From TrEMBL:
SUPFAM superfamilies: Carbohydrate phosphatase (SSF56655). It comes from the Eukaryota. InterPro entries: FBPase_C_dom, FBPase_class-1, FBPase_N, FBPtase, Fructose_bisphosphatase_AS. One of its GO terms (molecular function) is fructose 1,6-bisphosphate 1-phosphatase activity. Belongs to the FBPase class 1 family. Its EC number is 3.1.3.11. This is Fructose-1,6-bisphosphatase, cytosolic. It comes from Cuscuta europaea. Keywords: Carbohydrate metabolism, Cytoplasm, Hydrolase, Magnesium, Metal-binding.
Amino acid sequence: MKKIRWRAKTKLESKQSSTLLQWITAFIHVSSRLPHTDMIAHPVRPLMIMIIITIRINPPIPSILAWLQRKMDHAAEAHRTDLMTITRFVLNEQSKHPGSRGDFTILLSHILLGCKFVCSAVNKAGLAKLIGLAGETNVQGEEQKKLDVLSNQVFIKALVSSGRTCILVSEEDEEATFVKPPLQGKYCVVFDPLDGSSNIDCGVSIGTIFGIYMIRDGHEPELNDVLQPGKNMIAAGYCMYGSSCTFVLSTGSGVNGFTLDPSLGEFILTHPDIKIPKKGKIYSVNEGNTKNWDGPTAKYVENCKFPSDGSSPKSLRYIGSMVADVHRTLLYGGIFMYPGDKKIPNGKLRVLYEVFPMSFLIEQAGGQAFTGKQRALDLVPKNIHDRSPLFLGSYDDIEAVKALYADPDTKEM
């Protein structure tokens, strides 16, 4: 690397004077647009000063100015004050509906509070001795973790205290919770308070899943208000607790992602208008169940690994936490599968608070969700803890699965 020698001149040649003048003008222009901070403390200004001093030859001004502009934009981004918080986002959406009374906004604020509480508990689970079993089993026959129990209590209390709910269905409770007046509202919330809890002890990403129905005004709440097809949901989302706390929400007009800023205690819009790629390079499934799969599922996975058209095989990615697996699928494309098999024909995933919310989000992002027989959101559950097979992801990938299930030869494999 050629060393730049420092030298001082009592006089500058005309060309060098012109160049220096251009640099000084550029410096003043760029510096004036940066946030008003101390010149020495700001990381961009000293860099520009060094460039001005050390350049001895006529530089390519346009390209250097473009580089400085990018640096300036980056610095300005770090000092943004117009952050789109989730509260501001929801209020903006609310303003588009003149008749809105803000009930949904209040309900969502209580869901967010529950998510922040659980996020804090997950982050300090080891220190607070929240790791391990609680010594109980839930309605699914699964051993409950301490965080399972805590998360369920947090969300039940947050949702009831909102004064906007009438029926709550949790994975952890055998029966639905009916909210009595005066705290009774018009929304039914179905939720899995802590999905992927079997991964808590090893620090894998876990999350909360929820879906929201609304009952008619003046209608007395009854269980059938939640035993509806998923297409009748008015909103769905999940909160993922991992390297960051991410909240993904759809109210029926697209999907948006927010990240919790710990210093502000607010979720900030970081992934606006999420669209799932039309086709992906990843498939996500528990291949430990291969021997029990039906023909179409086995054939699809075989095609993923050994494409007949000579294209590159898909990559397998499987975490075992639905929130984490679906989040990756939503952003990168591909397919997430939990099919039925010979041992569990109806699959493992619960319809109301796992299949429906995730299918709602995927469809809103431009993908598809399929049960092996029909569109997932067209299912009509008969029980609050019903289960269903599920294939969801990129539009083209689900089309390939549908084609295999429609092929009589494949179904008989």
